[in-house]
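testing teh design pipeline on a random one, pls ignore if ur not involved
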């Protein structure tokens, strides 16, 4: 699969990759796809039983939350979580929202060893 620019993929390119068997186009590609406008789409992949990359996309959500909290973009993150919370069905997404809301309330938990839960290869997803 060819991307015009793997570090600035379109939503259509992300969707095609989500249902392909191709490898991640770039190392740490989560950082390229977790733009705020892509988060609702990423949530649909997590909830779609036909998508074999649910863990990858769930990890992307945890990285997104960690970076939003670390970057002090709490208001944007809170609004997004409120929107997503109304439509989510999966326990994985509900748990991500709950954990994200906790981190918003207690951002000091990001520091130290807890950051390994909110970064690449999130322990919430892969352990």
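output:
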């Amino acid at each position: 699969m060819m991307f015009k620019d793997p570090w600035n993929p379109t939503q259509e390119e992300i969707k095609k990759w989500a249902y392909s068997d191709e490898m991640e186009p770039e190392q740490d590609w989560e950082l390229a796809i977790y733009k705020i406008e892509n988060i609702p789409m990423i949530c649909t992949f997590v909830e779609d039983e036909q998508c074999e990359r649910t863990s990858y996309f769930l990890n992307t959500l945890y990285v997104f939350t960690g970076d939003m909290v670390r970057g002090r973009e709490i208001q944007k993150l809170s609004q997004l979580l409120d929107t997503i919370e109304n439509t989510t069905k999966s326990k994985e997404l509900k748990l991500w929202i709950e954990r994200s809301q906790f981190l918003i309330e207690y951002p000091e938990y990001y520091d130290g060893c807890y950051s390994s839960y909110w970064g690449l290869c999130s322990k919430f997803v892969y352990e």
